[in-house]
Design goal:
The chain has helices spanning about 45-50, 125, 130-135, 160-170, 180-190, 215-225, 240-245, 270-280, 305-315, 320-325, 335-345, and strands spanning about 5-15, 15-25, 35-40, 70-75, 90, 100, 110-115, 150-155, 175-180, 195, 230-235, 250-255, 280-285, 325-330, 350-355. It is an alpha/beta fold. The strands form 3 sheets. Strands 3, 4, 5, 6, 7, 14 and 15 form a 7-stranded mixed beta sheet that branches. Strands 10-9-8-11-12-13 form a 6-stranded parallel beta sheet, sandwiched between helices. The chain starts with a strand and ends with a strand. About 45% of the residues are buried.
């Protein structure tokens, strides 16, 4: 196969992102490989911003970010499930116009799924939300959820908002909490019944631009529920968010760590451990990768099942992608949108690249 060119999003150094045109020489496709032309790809803010702005230790540049793409098959080797030219696929591909992707690892960390006719109603931009929907499901499926449970989700970025909406659809009493009022308002506009903004904690009130007299998140949550929550989820990926999740959780409750902590945070951790111990709280790591792609003996859970469940919520209107994705941009605007997501979280909530 002859050399072709592809527009690619490339992080060249800390704080430097551009859309570059690079040569792609796919050669003969091996078994399990497909050549895919991207149609839309969603930015996973937590993961990608940590790399754009060097928040994750040990980053080596350049980096080609992204893992939530919708595209069309241009050519295919011998793959399973069988794919043909023109098939629309949901895959864990980077923000690249053209790429060779391998289906060798079918898991929550590496997916290549044909979107059949049942997905025709869903635009590629809206369908790009599927992957973060699967990530969000890790924040609810491991929990021992009972009807009417009081649930608080900390952090109303895309994954946090989706997680809160999932709990709401499951019949829980849900509260979403963020430090930015506009993000709380965005969550309410997206269908979350209860969302509020409050300072991360007393020490961080000034840093969050909030008056020290205003309620902290722990105060706001306990006041809203009239006591402790049964289940709390940290979707911020910040250690102070995890602390708040623990301090709001009641006896025999559950705390799920959905976000990935990446930056240093110093505090006296003893009161947190003491509460975990005295309240007999279960702490659950909810990183993506908990479930196999296909159903295995002894467990009902699988990525295949979760994908169908999330798609059903999109179709019945429980989750509206157009109310969640705030910015759809061309790849050439990459630096602008990453800057917006990082420095202007009051107006940039969720963004996708349109590759057409």
């Amino acid at each position: 196969m002859q050399s072709i060119s592809s527009r690619n999003i490339k992080i060249t150094a800390k704080g430097e992102v551009s859309c570059v045109t690079e040569a792609l020489e796919p050669g003969p496709l091996k078994a399990g490989e497909v050549l895919i032309r991207n149609e839309a790809s969603l930015i996973s803010s937590g993961t990608e911003l940590s790399r754009v702005y060097g928040l994750k230790a040990g980053i080596v540049y350049p980096v080609y970010p992204g893992y939530a793409s919708i595209g069309r098959v241009e050519d295919a080797g011998a793959v399973c499930p069988a794919l043909s030219k023109g098939d629309r696929v949901f895959f864990s591909g980077a923000h690249q116009e053209l790429q060779v992707y391998s289906a060798a690892s079918m898991s929550s960390l590496g997916m290549l799924v044909k979107l059949g006719p049942e997905f025709d109603w869903l635009s590629s931009v809206d369908a790009s939300l599927l992957h973060l929907g699967l990530v969000a499901m890790n924040g609810i499926l491991p929990a021992d959820l009972k009807l009417g449970d009081k649930v608080c989700v900390f952090g109303l970025g895309t994954v946090g908002l989706l997680t809160a909406l999932l709990y709401q659809a499951a019949g829980a009493q849900v509260l979403g909490v963020d430090t930015v009022e506009n993000r709380a308002a965005h969550a309410r506009n997206a269908g979350l019944h209860n969302a509020l903004a409050a300072a991360a904690d007393g020490m961080d009130a000034a840093a969050d631009g909030m008056d020290a007299a205003e309620k902290t998140q722990v105060q706001a949550v306990t006041e809203f529920f009239g006591g402790d929550a049964d289940i709390t989820v940290d979707a911020t990926g910040r250690s102070e968010g995890i602390i708040n999740a623990v301090m709001c959780c009641g006896e025999n409750g559950q705390v799920l760590l959905l976000g990935s902590p990446r930056t240093d945070y110093h505090c006296n951790i003893t009161p947190v451990f003491n509460r975990l111990h005295m309240k007999m709280i279960t702490l659950i790591g909810a990183f993506n990768g908990r479930y196999p792609f296909y159903k295995k003996e002894g467990s009902r859970e699988s990525i295949e099942r979760n994908l169908a469940s999330f798609a059903a919520l999109l179709k019945n209107g429980s989750i509206d992608p157009r109310a969640i994705i705030s910015h759809v941009v061309k790849p050439e605007a990459a630096m602008e949108v990453y800057d917006g997501l990082f420095n202007h979280p009051d107006t940039y909530y969720c963004a996708a690249f349109d590759w057409h």
